[in-house]
Amino acid sequence: MKDQKIKVGAVHAAPIYMNKLETLQKVVSLIEEAGKQNIDLLAFPEVFVPGFPYFINSYAPPAQVSAIIEYGQQSVIVSAKGGDLAAAREACKAAKVGIVLGISERVQGSHQLFNSLVFIDSTGTLLGTHRKLQPTYAERYVWSQGSGHTLRTYGFEWSESESFTVGVLCCWENTMNLARQSLIESGHQILAAAWPALSTTGGFEAVADIQIEALAKNHALTGQVFVICASNYVDKACLEWLERNIGLQTHLKAGGG
Predict the structure, then answer these.
(1) Domain segments of the chain: what residues?
(2) Nearest-angstrom CA–CA distance, 47 and 188
């Protein structure tokens, strides 16, 4: 309806780096805060839980092995019965907030990981999961390749008789024209674009934010939709974890969002 107004929020925050349980607790607190602000849809950054694996771009591959193993252990198991996301789903229901949450997803009973975005509506229902179609560059050390069957939109309840449709694209998926076109043809109203703190990474400082803004505006204009961008923040704790567990590095700095 033409009078439909949806209030959205973008999370620009730092996770409790490489700590799944504490970061999920932070997710719950952010959902509760969004409820107090009467937000209908809250969009989180790429792999907010347990944080983006910045080590893949900051160290030589042999130095990353133990970090990748730990990353798998801190990744999220998605289950229709609750799993790691049970508390977040309850928080969505209590606060009447829908979310798109970026997670590193671990397939139950295996070590296979995906860069995923989960859709949870304001009733606490897990609507679905999108797995990033193609992990970018060194991300292939960590995540498996997704597939097109997860590239779809979901309806979020807005009132008893109305809903709004949401699609997602993760990081460089926003550059994939056929992926964008697939969402456009599905009739989405809002695109949640999830990003890491790209501007904090060596070589991207001057161009990352310009590129992200251009991609968002392009999709908004060509798709005639609203785009909400959420980006991670690299804090001191993240940098300290990298130095403590892997070693000194010069490719990543604090900032982002």
Answers:
(1) 8-256
(2) 22
- Please say whether the beta carbons of 156 and 124 come within 8 A: no
Superfamily of segment(s) 8-256: Carbon-nitrogen hydrolase (3.60.110.10)
Here the contacts of 130-138 (C-beta below 8 Å, separation 24 or greater) are 130/168, 130/170, 131/105, 132/170, 132/171, 132/173, 133/173, 133/176, 133/179, 134/172, 134/173, 134/176, 136/171, 136/172, 137/57, 138/56, 138/57
Q: Give the pLDDT of residue 2.
A: 59
Residue 71: both structure tokens together: 């990353």
SS3 for 231?
A: strand
CB 53 within 8 A of CB 20: no
- Cβ burial, residue 174 (10 Å; 0-12/13-18/19+): buried
Model-level pTM? 0.95
Mean pLDDT by 10 residues, the chain (257 residues): 82 96 98 97 98 95 95 96 93 98 96 97 96 95 94 88 92 96 94 94 89 96 96 96 96 92
Q: In terms of residues, how long is the chain?
A: 257
